[in-house]
Amino acid sequence: MFDLFSHPDPITPTQPEVLDLGDGVFHIKRLAPVELCMLHIHRILKFAPLRHMMTPMGHPTQVKMSNCGDYGWVSDESGYRYSQLDPESQRPWPCLPAEFLQLHKYACQLAGLVPFQPDACLINCYEIGTAMGRHRDKDEQDTSWPIVSISLGLSAVFQVFGDSRNAKTKNIQLDSGDVVILSGASRQYYHGVKPVKLDPLQPNLTQRYNLTLRKSQ
Ligand code: MD3
Ligand code: FE
Question: Which residues line ligand 1 (CB under 6 A)?
Fold first, then answer.
């Protein structure tokens, strides 16, 4: 007798799984087509290379960044903002690929959220040992639009710190292909990423990429 539970499903080896973590946080495991997303990222980064951005505090970001879409998140000595031009080249950012928009739409549907068009996609690149310190995302014109995050490559532990009333910290392990949606109350929460570690089973995999699709304007 064919036992569905003793082996992975051979027809659909990776089906997405939606986890509702509360406060508007949705973790959708195995949703993103990793190889396709990485092809887009490598193409985009040829036009808008990764760079450390200078913070207003005068030190470079640990994470290397770039953008695609109508607007890109940039940081320099004068502050953080969204810009239509890449400050390194003075050219517009590369287009947001249709597949990223489709993935965004599908993720919103799975989480039961009303779909909307993102106009910005920040590309974060973490080398081994790189972390992202605790912060809030508040440079968007309307900070109530959800943020959709796509993780690719090495895994990382993502931390969402509750607001002062709700102090529970959520630790979420994000694996390649996972999508996280931050909506509702959690959209305003402090969050960060613990230092990315090498996976001994994949010693040649040395980066984690994270895409955040946002409505900035
Ligand atoms: C929780 N990036 O780019 S994405 C960022 O994995 C950023 O690179 C992380 O935080 C990364 O700003 C986490 C998930 C994310 C994005 C926005 C949030 C989580 C959030 C806004 C509010 C609360
Ligand atoms: Fe953030």
Answer: 122, 124, 132, 137, 147, 149, 158, 160, 180, 182, 186-187, 189, 191, 193, 210, 212
